[in-house]
Automatic annotation (TrEMBL):
Domain of life per record: Bacteria
PROSITE patterns, per database record: PROKAR_LIPOPROTEIN (PS51257)
Keywords linked to the UniProt accession: Signal
One Gene Ontology term of the molecular function aspect: metallopeptidase activity
Family matches, as Gene3D superfamilies: Collagenase (Catalytic Domain)
SUPFAM superfamilies from the UniProt entry: Metalloproteases ('zincins'), catalytic domain
Protein name: Peptidase
Signal sequence annotation: 1-22
Amino acid sequence: MNNKITTLLLLLFFAFSFQSCKDDNKDNTTPPTSILGDASKAYLSGAVPSLDIQIDYITGFKPTNQTIVNLKNFLSARLNKPGGISVSLREIPSPQNSKYTIEQIRTLETQNRTVSSSLSTMSAYVIYLDNDYIESQGNQVVLGIAYSSTSFAIFEKTIKSLSGGLGEPSETTLESAVTQHEFGHLLGLVNTGTPITSNHHDEANGAHCTNNDCLMHYSIQTGTSLGNLLGGNIPDLDIDCIRDLQANGGK
Ligand SMILES: [Zn+2]
Ligand SMILES: [Zn+2]
């Protein structure tokens, strides 16, 4: 009995020290939960009842209103958040980077993130950027990247260059697909924080799903399945990915 109380107090202590640490925006240390997928259960289950999402965008690279609506609908369908999901949008000036490295993206987050997680509220940080990822070149591009347990970046300039034209998906469709795909990584998909309940992990391509109709197929992130997005279809999670989320506290 005493041991249980000690364990609980320790857990509470860690939860509060994490909170006070995250409240200090001047703190440059790596957040304690910076391993991708580590926050999946807290996002999925109702144990932490609310979710605050901060979306920053570089001037001129704002996601469409419909993309925000689509993201909220996607998350509402899968996360147990009886306290609600709130989204705040904010414009930030361009840091004038040529192409972005992960380190440059982390620096922007450190300078601009104001949301933090607590026992009652989970947080997520999303940034829409005005240039390509450092490793994007030719038709080998990265459209989004989840780089910590609670944050991801969308390469909005790259998305704009591949959408809205003849024979291309609409900006909202591509933006929504990539944004929801990256959030799927924060939810622990595939087999990275949220354990698999069936054999659908495409290990050769990282934390992705073997089903090429699934939102978590690797091609969403690299834009190699743009043809599938014509007609405004945003891929959904397949039943295998949904079952994984349900087994880890989601709905
Ligand atoms: Zn991915
Ligand atoms: Zn899947």
